[in-house]
Amino acid sequence: MIGTAAMLLLASCKSSPKVEERVCNIYGGLQDNVEAILQRHLSEYDAMDGVVIVMETNSGRIRGMVGLECKDDSSYVRADSLADVRRSSALVQTVSMLAALNSGKVKQDTNEKTPMQLITLYNAIANNGKMVAPQLYDSLRQTNEEAKVSSPQMASSVNIKDIQKMLEENVTNGQGKKAQSDLFAVAGKDGTTYNKDSTLTVDFCGYFPARNPVYTVLVSVHRKEIPASGGGMAGAIFKEIAEFLYH
User: Fold this and answer.
1) Single pTM value for the model
2) In the chain, at which end, N or C, are there fewer CB atoms within 10 A of the end residue's CB?
3) If phi over 0 gives left and psi between -120 and 50 gives alpha, with beta otherwise, what is residue 236?
């Protein structure tokens, strides 16, 4: 579930001669709380593993990134690497929709995306089409570096607004209702995928507040059997993390 790129970024946050000139953007307190929330829900869902990534919408800074996997004793430990376990995600349906709306200007990628690629896409939608690269580090000399823009406008403004409306309505009136908060408006997409090994992946990726986003959050949970609901399970984790961030 946790792609190679995401886990390498997480591992590289540890002390290393190669990163002496940089400072990690992850907030320690936020990381600990996100891990606790994820672990509690994974235990409740009897899940095999799960991942959460928290990205600052405007800057692309990664403020939290947690991967947990279940061991034989049913306890959850931090995952150093799950690079060999790649699963499809229903969240790429938004890529297909955007590509269709934009007359092919945005290419649909493979259905097996690392979580970092997916959150970057949804973050660009939150940014009204401006795609910024995820940043795990800032320079020690310049801790407020400008966002690294990958694409100033990945799709037309009209089509971006259509997708934004679709993501908002999915939370207010669709299957993503569990992600809805009384504190702020949420926009996002849920999904449930049946994997080739008969396991299931449930996802939710969204941003908040919907009209002036501050954070984009991706949640992905892997479990062995039904019931499995992207909106109901991953969406509930998203809501709890989002409300923690809001406070």
Assistant:
1) 0.85
2) C
3) alpha
